[in-house]
Amino acid sequence: MATCDQDLWQVVGGGARGGIIVRTACELGSPIADSRLSTGSLIKGVECVDGRLHYELVEGSGPDKGWVTQSLRGKELLLKMEAHGEVKGETTEASTSDDNQAAHADSGSGSETTTEQIVVDKASEEQLTRDEQEALRQYEEKFGQARDGEHPGYNRKAFPWFTNKPAVKETPNEAIEAAKAFKEKPKDKRKPRLYDVDSEGEEVTLCSRCFMPIGEIAYQGRDKNACVHAECMAQVVIEEMKEGDEKLQAEEHEKKMKNRKEYDIGWRMESVPKSSTLAERLGCSPAPQGLCCLVYDEAARTVRVAATLEPSAAVNLEYLTLALKVRKQGHREPLFSLDPVDPQNMEKTPQKKRYEPDWLAGTSVGDVMFQADYFLKELALGEYTLPVVGMLSVFDWSETLEASRQWAGREWFVVRKAEVRLAEDKTLIPFVKMGVEAREQVLGPKGLQDAPVTGANHPLKRFAEAFTRNFDLIAERKSVIYHLRELAKASVMAKFLVDSGATLDKAWFDLADELVAATEPEAHPEIPQLWNMRGLSRIQLKEGKLVDTETGLNTNLHAIYGGVEFGLDRFELAQRQGLRPGQIMPSGSALQTPGLQGMSLGPSGRPMFMPQRFQLSQGREMPQGVDLNLDKFDLAETEKFAGMLPACSGSSDSLEGRTLLGRAFLRCFQEGYEVLKEEDKTLLRGVFNPALSDRMNEAEAFTPPDPTMSYISKLRSLVNEEQSLLQRRKNKFFERSFVVGDAGAEFPRSWTSRFQIDQPRATQNVMQSGLVQIQVDQSFQQSLLKEILPTAAAEFEQKTEDGVVFRIYRLGSLEVRTVQEHEKAEHVGVVFSARAPSFNLRPGKKMVSDDERVTKASIYVEAIDAESSILLDQKWSSKRLDYIHYYVVLETDASNTILTEMLPNGTAILAMNPEGLLDRNSLAKLLKAVEPELEVTAGQVKQVHEKHSRKAEAAVSPSMRKFFAKSVFALTCKATGVQKARKYMGRAYPHPGTRTEFPRRPYTTRKSRITQEPVTKQEES
Questions:
Q1: What is the pTM of this model?
Q2: What digits encode the pLDDT tens for the residues 145-157?
């Protein structure tokens, strides 16, 4: 019982309900008074018991006396009056019920009363209390400030150089007309016709993908009666392989999700232990609502639990009590390992959970170690999007560096630095730096053993280095990693208390025993092996055929084991002496007694690279994995640390004890901050990006980032690097050289297709040379975004780790590239005009003599440029064959090459050894290739070229250009003597077909000039 010194109180809660509930006794289950105590009434306090006030009415309406609740869910229902009659606080619209427990106790008193008790005014829930506002204000003021004596130094920021470009005054008519044509173009729902009739009356079969003529070799497309080129067939195979791989991945994902559910795999945020109930058992009464810390009495060598608003000083009391129990019994830190049951059969063997000591199984400490370790393995194998922009998984590194090699390895969490700092008010502040270690393993006589050397470029090593560098940022984003770090802090604190000889009350160990006794046995001591498979295919084309098709699944085994290895025994946290084996510590005594000799707590010849098996000096084997060994850290003499934080603890009834800082932080996260600078707001939005972070779902268990300068500077540097990478990605995406399916190292690995057609890089550059950037004004961009793009389907749409969406739209001859950041509007980055690729057809230095014999002739077909296509679109009579262009390539016995064709302006060209011919051929479709049996010389080809050059007129039709190419090709066809029918290749992988004859059907009785059959007089003329 506590008296209230006859204080005056004003009722500020229950405004929406006419007042607050009054009960006749202190207990929440006691009867409710006939009426409520009205809002605004003045009452005099008689006594206070556990947040309940016994009052007498001074002014207002309601019962003359009774018991009321002072605050509910952080909302003040009563506020104390100052001596001059003003209220210390402000009126709230909090719930008028006592609390959830009271609502449950009164559930039988009628539905109306129960509803009144459990209804919480939503407007009140959205508002911050006075305490929360003050706590948040203090947090904002110290955000990024050097409060611990550290020198600010130089804060390096990563940013790209940028120069503002002058605004475009007017958009070219070309872009306006193309956008208008796309907008007005009606959708053709008719099935495309897969044949056409050329100028000679012959029916020509068209490819069902590119609608260009099929040559002498054809493949079956997706439809049974459709034919495609070899180049198009390669694309069909790639698409089918992608679909099959996506289906396989979906099936595998379903199996893994089933395993996660069956074996209870996956971090649950509601499992985070709360410190409030344990704090009261440890002497801190009433229990703090928010964070808890330990205050150290150096003279008496004792500690007490206190409330705090300092995230760096906060410690989870359940983690601490269990860590103390581990150190008391095992003289070490908690350890976890996930090991193969049968190392001889790594592909099928399950993995066994190993804890040290084994009673950790099922406890909160055991759960966070297992879940964090398994989550690390899932990230390593690419199961989830990595929580850092630009970071690669082990699987990604393996594909990049050594895809064909099988290996096994282990990786585990370690503590790289550990300190215990002391604030001005003697608050203990545990400090840790964590990371990930990795080792390749080989199968030896005793099972898996660490390889003598793990190369610097090993995929595990590269992943571990990246994870270590970004550990603090990952911990702020991923709840399970954050709480693993909290467990490491608790283990550091436990070691400090042991090594310094601190005296702890027996309640600490009683609580740990109760927690262990209440823990249910481990339901799944063994879990299935974590696996991953990805498809891989490379297809090559040669002379119009699919050759050397390497298609299949990348099934190389990449097995990863290990766990969490804190390694605190490497850190001297206090001046330590040994403890005799078997000695029992009396309750209430120091955790270590000076002068005792026996088992050494230090390392006994333990290599620093963390071998697979750890041993104490008595030779007992310890499992690998999560091992918080702190032997080398000396934390006993706090005065040697440079950092000295201001006072950061408070009593239970202080602001620190009454306030949930995390809840206030989360409420203001969406609303903005009044004190923070704009750069600090940007930092917090970057750290807690919903696409990368799940800690926003921790609710009241959430703890904001440590606001000290050194920690915030590190987070700022890492987030700035992500922003710099985002800007580089935008710049790369807006360049003409960006290739879909081969995005490059700046973008996520998934953007680079594992199913590809082998093409030289020069060929891809030629393909992009047809894109010409167009400068458009702001009004045209808005027209695109509001009127045209919403009705268009993006031909390319991919999302990065941070939720930024990159899209490519093709609107006729226009290519529009846009970017949409998370929770922001889409904006146009660049607009290209698609034109004919520019080939370097400049003749070579080597000359071709007239007497050189032609050894091979090939006729190619390619799509016409966009400008000519637009002109043909305006003619209703245009046919598909009008949209293509023919050219002929001749090879001579002197290793020379001749290119001949007729351009749209009527000019017939004859180029000798053109430099860019191979690039052009790689983009065209080969119709036919022959090797003349009779002699055809380069001089004869020149005669045909001169003949048609004299007759050429300006702006010739597509049929005239085709006629010229076939006239040159007819020389070689005449020399071969026999015309071959088309070879029908059937289906390519995975449905091979037999080669069959697939002759072309004549549309009329007219004969082609290539066959050299008798023709009509009209043809001769």
A1: 0.74
A2: 776 666 555 444 4
